[in-house]
Amino acid sequence: SIGGNDPDNRKMMKFDLNVHEQRLKKQITDLVNTRRNSMALQYGTTTILRADKEVLIIRRQYFDEIATVIFNKSAQEFTFENTTVLPNNFNLILH
């Protein structure tokens, strides 16, 4: 039939974000801003420090700037032992 699920195809567009959507938008915005402000994340050489079913650790380096990114898919807390001295401009984002 012509018109699909008419008038169901004319539902009001949803503009307001719920709490979960607002939190997700903030997380994505934080990650995008971190990448924009990091030469290592934009242009660095990538080294995979750990890759298994639950955890992925990537280190990117661009000259003297080093960025370490940890993805933890499990519900368990993950502790990362860092042996690198952290610089004054160290940035930690937890999600």
Task: Kindly describe this structure.
This protein is α+β, with helices and mostly antiparallel strands and 95 residues long. The chain has one domain (16-95). Helix content is 24%, strand content 24%. It is built from 2 helices and 3 strands. It has helices at 19-36, 39-43, and strands spanning 45-51, 55-62, 65-72. Strands 1-2-3 form a 3-stranded antiparallel β-sheet. 1% of the residues are buried. The mean pLDDT is 84.
- What percent of residues are in strands? 15-25%
- Which regions contain 5 or more consecutive residues with pLDDT less than 50? none
Structural class: alpha+beta
Share of helical residues? 10-25%
Amino- and carboxy-terminal Cα gap: 46 Å
**Mind summarizing the main beta sheet?**
3 strands, antiparallel
Pattern of helices and strands: HHEEE
From the alpha-carbon coordinates, what is the Rg to the nearest angstrom? 20 Å
InterPro entries: Glyco_hydro_b
Q: What brief labels describe this structure?
A:
3 strands, alpha+beta
Secondary structure blueprint with pairings:
Blueprint (H helix, E strand, L loop, with lengths): L18 H18 L2 H5 L1 E7 L3 E8 L2 E8 L23
Antiparallel strand pairs: 1-2, 2-3
